[in-house]
Please model this.
Amino acid sequence: MAVCLSLTMLVEKGTKLVLEQVVTTIASVADTSEEQFVAYYDRLMPCLKYIISNANTEDLKMLRGKAIECVSLIGLAVGAEKFMRDASEVMDMLLKTQTEGGDLPDDDPQTSYLISAWARICKILGKQFEQYLPLVMGPVMKAASMKPEVALLDNDDMQGVEGDLDWQFVSLGEQQNFGIKTSGPEYLQGMWNYIYPELLKAIDTEPENEVLAEHMYSLAKAKAIVEHYSRSPSTRKRLHTVMEEMVLPVLELIQFVDTRWSSEYNMLSRLHAVRKAVGAELANSENNIEILTEVEWKQAAGIVEVLGPLADATKEINKALKSRFSFYDSDPIFCPSMLCDPRFRGVLIDDMVAVNTLAIEVKKLSDKSSLEPNVKDEHPSCSSSSSGLWSSFDSIPNTTQPAIDNNSEVKDYLNEPRCIETLGNGCLTEEAMAELLKILNKLMLEHFNKAVARQEKRKDEDYDEVVEEQLANEDDEDVYILSKIADIIHSLFLSYKSDFFPYFDQIVNHFVKCLSPEMPWSDHQWALCIFDDVIEYGGPNCVKYQQHFLGPLLSYLSDEKAEVRQAAVYGWGALAQFGGESFAAVCAEAVPRLVKIITDPESHTIENINPTENAISAITKILKYNSSRLNVQELLPHWLSWLPVWEDMDEAPHVYGYLCDLIEANHPLVLGNNHENLPKLIAIIAEAFARDAINVDHTESKRMISLIRQVQGNENMFQACIGQLSVEQQQALHEVLSGTN
Model:
């Protein structure tokens, strides 16, 4: 009550700074207390609306922005039922900001508050917010098109801005820091994060959990349909034929991509447009693909209708962003730096653009070095000499004075892997290797310290959903850095093989710690990947680390996270192939757990298919390379029953190569009595080609084609095999045998 009276008095007296603090405090209390704030709603809302309506002068813009933020947070806290009566009036007041006052200046403090408030109000209004989309997108697109603020600061200057959440900085060595203001893209992303799920829920009146469950089921069916046609050229060709017969435009289906919010809209929009052709083709072919029901098609149409305006707006924003950051596209320093730092990744430039730009620059330097051997370049090129790699990166920032423009020099150690792999063993001097290990050690210590700090913040009395979101973002950044550390170590093992062991000894304890049960699953995943490299590139010499990796490789086969299981599974395949006879017993011990992964009822779901096929490949490698402690005759029939595989194109050649080995050796358990298993074997091979499981030009593909041609020599046997195939399988065999695939 006292706060309400104080606010009223401050509104009347116009004490600006105090009023700003009071409004901020109210917003924080509302955000924390949530529905309990209802008791104060009727007293505070009129005062806040008064501020929004009357704080129109230049010096009151910050106050108005904070009031806008406060109103939207109160609306979220008290819920739609209470806030709905004021929602329309509040939206009208917010929209007047642009309709009556013209376009806001680029530096207007109200912009970020407005966009964040619209996102929260969208969460409250649901589908009713759709009417405002044409009005709110103008400021959003304008914000997206603003040129970013950049700065180059000395360490002394950093003290005043280190706590500013609107800025992100990259170190340019020991003394200087490059910064860019990223608040724009962040609050735009926040708006979409609110709008998208809320509009999805708004298209149906059923309870939220039922809507979500139905939506996810329908989406899974749609994904399966698109994937069915995306995997096989023959099925796509049949669908195109049906489209032509139905006098429809021949359109390609669009696959779903998790990392893009609009991917669901694009996939469903295209699928709905060709639904008649898809339904007709699926009905007339042999497959296990489940078509969408009429109700599900209507739901898909509703999603497309609701998300259409957002997709259109996103295209406009993307155009604006592309224009905004176009001057970074060809910059050899900024491109790799944006790729290396997770705070900037995806904000300025696409990853592949950055990689391509770096590759072009490396080629230029290489060409210049070979063409002009006697000309001293201003910046040393990346040569094959042992010191060339690091001197190329180190000398540039040390010899060139950075400037506040897009030519600022950014030291890019986290993008070293490609260079290391190119230059090979000995590319780093002892001094350079010591420096690299020092950096990796520092990053790993920071990784653990940050994880502890986040756990402490979760115990703090101020911990809430907002804090958790921030902590989750920090965790994502740390996981990304850990993944890049794993990439660097992968490149070092690939180049140095077991010669890297003495250096790896200096940092191995960090990754042993990552494998501890109490560490997060992402630590387990990347540490397992690193020890997979120890095994694969260290060969039999990896035995020196077996006390570190054998236990985790075995125990994490049962992990609930598919990513962790896959990393562990791959390790067993590598151990069988590269570890040598000394690991035969433990490989045999791992087989029952690998079989459990393969035979699990959920083994072929979308999230589990990769670990499952990797487990099949791992057993394949154990059978082929390290089976002395196994009963191969007992295991082979089970192995054959797990085929075909098609999801992992890296592992499929190992599986089909071993299958060819067994067939070429006339193995009785595989071929059966009087070759009675031939139809099944031909079906496995045909399905592999139908699903594009292996590139037709691969060595193992040619072996499979050769085996089919041998069977083709016996016309009666071949026709008996072909007669048991599906239409898709027959078409796939026809294509590979005729060489038209």
